[in-house]
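Notes from the 1:1 (GR / supervisor)

We went over the backlog. Supervisor wanted to see one worked example end to end before approving the batch request, so GR pasted a single chain during the call. The sequence is below; no edits were made to it. Supervisor asked that the structure be written out right there so they could see what the output format looks like.
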Amino acid sequence: MDKQHLIAALQLEPHTEGGYYRRTYCSEKAVTTANGSERALLSSIYYMLCSDSPIGFFHRNQSDIIHYWHSGSALTYYLVDPEGNFSSHRLGPDLAAGDSFQMTVPGGYWKATLLENGDYGLLSEAVAPGFDYADMTLAKLEELQRDFPKLAEKIDLKRFCKF
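Structure output shown during the call:
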């Protein structure tokens, strides 16, 4: 399948952070978070970057997220932990080249994603406690530059910040 068939078949829509998504599951069970808000125990989405939307912009979630690669090209994740340490990881099909089929990003980390080549990269995400937009922050360039002054030596922040 090509990206247009997948977008239609999976009923994906544009995502705030870039790419396309659709929520596929939200637990009826709830938990109370550390800040006292109530969230679903678990939620899950399809998430796809493609050639017309190849960047998932830097954002931070409060919940832990497990990413599961499904098909297409590899996706590169850029992570910044709360102390400012930078790392990158690839989800994709080529285990011999260092790709992984899954990866966990702890809550509180900044992350951005890139489809470096190919028509699309499709994955799923499981979020616990469940995703809520109130728990997500899209990065502002000025904030990342201020909070992590050496980060621009490792990655083109302007390219990966929506605002």
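Supervisor's comment: The domain at 3-160 is CATH 2.60.120.10 (Jelly Rolls).
Batch request approved.
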